[in-house]
Design brief:
70 residues; mainly beta; four-stranded antiparallel β-sheet; 4 strands; 37% strand
């Protein structure tokens, strides 16, 4: 499933107050939360931090690092 939350223009986000979503592991991989990003699929999209200035309404998407088991 795709985890995201909306952020309104002019608002700030204290990311420390948001629980990091957990992605279910598979038989071959576990997943480590890598942060919030402004695009769900583009690996070059910027990572959102507490210092990011919000200049328009947007959605933040959770991204994960895939870790092989074994």
């Amino acid at each position: 499933s795709l985890w995201y939350f909306p952020v309104e223009e002019g608002k700030t986000v204290d990311l420390s107050l948001i629980t990091s979503p957990i992605k279910d592991e598979t038989e071959e991989f576990t997943y480590e939360f890598a942060g919030w990003f402004t695009d769900p699929t583009n690996v070059n999209a910027g990572q959102f931090t507490d210092l990011t200035v919000v200049t328009k309404d947007l959605k933040l998407y959770a991204r994960y690092n895939e870790i092989a088991k074994g």
